[in-house]
Amino acid sequence: MTSARVPAALLGACAALVLLVAVAFAVGRFPVSAGDLASILWSRLTGTEHGLDPTIETVVLRIRGPRVAAALLIGAALAAAGAAYQNMFRNPLVSPDILGVSAGAAVGAVLGIFLSLNVIMIQSLAFAFGLGAVGLVYITANAVRGHDPLLVLVLAGVVVGSLLGACVALMKYLADPYNQLPAITFWLLGSLASASPEDVWSTLPLMLLGLVPMWLLRWRINLLALDDEEARALGVDTGRIRLTVIAAATLMTSASVAISGVIGWIGLVIPHFARMLVGPDFSRLLPTSILLGAAFLLGVDTLARTVARIEIPLGVLTAFVGTPLFLWQLATARRGWQ
Amino acid sequence: MKLEAKHLDFGYGTRRVGHDVSLSVEAGEVLCLLGPNGSGKTTLFKTLLGLLPAQGGAVRVDEMDLRARVRNEIARRVSYVPQAHAAFFPFTVEEVVLMGRTAHLGLFSSPSRRDRDAAHAAMARMRIEHLADSIYTRISGGERQLTLIARALAQDARVIVMDEPTANLDFGNQVRVLQHIRSLAQSGIGVLLSTHDPDHAFICAHRVAMLHEGHLTRLGAPAATITPDSLREIYGVEVAVVRVAVGEGLERPVCVPGGALSGGRS
Prior knowledge:
Chain A has helices at about 5-25, 35-45, 55-90, 100-115, 120-145, 150-175, 180-190, 195-215, 220-225, 230-235, 240-260, 265-280, 280-305, 315-330.
């Protein structure tokens, strides 16, 4: 991949994203045309009247707008976190929840549902437990000396993750099968149906807080893909960079999972797509992953609310839509995982 | 500029691998470390690079203790060429060589035009410029080794530590790498390398150090150090060292396995 082709690819991806947003607004029970969307946004920006049906404004600003924004944000965040983690763990099978963030968030959310707490409490619990789980894994791994630090980290993540999985299973077993169990199942499959403007505004700063250090450290994150001692001999303080990447990725993933539930697949596979397109250099991989992740989740979420009479769970649809796409890309790519 | 070990004890954690090793590499000098498998060569190298903490004694770079220096300060002075390995990601050769510039970059910086120029100069010196856009994971073992040496050159350190740079290379590539090592030293870079072939020391080294069971047993000029006695001592086999003509009026010692191998039928 020559560097000249990268801006063109990025521009193409941006254009596709804008088109997808327009399509996402235009389909569904209340179709909003691109023109209406533009005039509502324009009137919000300038404070003038748009002269359209107030229902359309409500759809755009309170219902579909937040949902579209949440899909873009979460898709971008999961893909970015996945890209960073795959570099850092030098492994194609790694997703953002390798260190237990999703399992932790699931315990938090399921606990909230089990205790019949309100939505905000459930989200807060999910966020806090996600951070807590990774913190626990990191501290445990650091306490173990004399092994490959990455290996210990992954092992601790897997073990803690399965423990948390058992906690979720226990609560599901004990939950009220008529009220709580469907809510738990629904949450575990992921959905953006109830995304509110408040969700978007509370998540956005957390996403940026995770994304900024990733972007700033983009060159050094490349070197994390080398053997640990090799990277240190090249002048990288691998321990600190790794901690920063873990903190950033965990923040983004935990914030995502808290409002959308567990959406697998994106953080695992979108970075592969991106790597096949632009190569492994993180300064190109990160923006490409972000764009692809955002576009992919928006597309899938739009399908989820339009193809059937009921909402299809996102976690299910991402895999159904993504797997054939990925296999096609794998068969045609010239450059990817070795 | 000098990389120096003084009464160095080294090992992993509390496990002692080597004891009381003192040696130094000056700029412009090639020091070749010989020693059987498990003698502690790699552990010694890692300690000299500051990747493992010294258990006793000290490692000094530029007359300063390694412990007083942070990672990228060390990396600007001493670079490391690991054994050519399989990489995890399909980086291009140019990107791999550019990674050598990291110690010269700010924490949040990416390589600039100047870093790119330095990387290309390093590739030109190793005569691998034509590989710049090749994928590192798809080139041959010899080309990878040259890429890693180019990366160390781009790092712009005065001393390069090479862990078995000729391992897993075919005969031609071994000779090529040794010639490159020679010419690096001529340009004022100090090279510390390990090898399993004592002949390589005759080809490229100014001095030879022998490591046996964690102790430095010999240190000196190749012809005086690599003898049937010293080789028997560290490898436990009979070796004859003979002089052969390698060109017009040029002679070089060569090691030939002897003892039971050739003497069995006589």
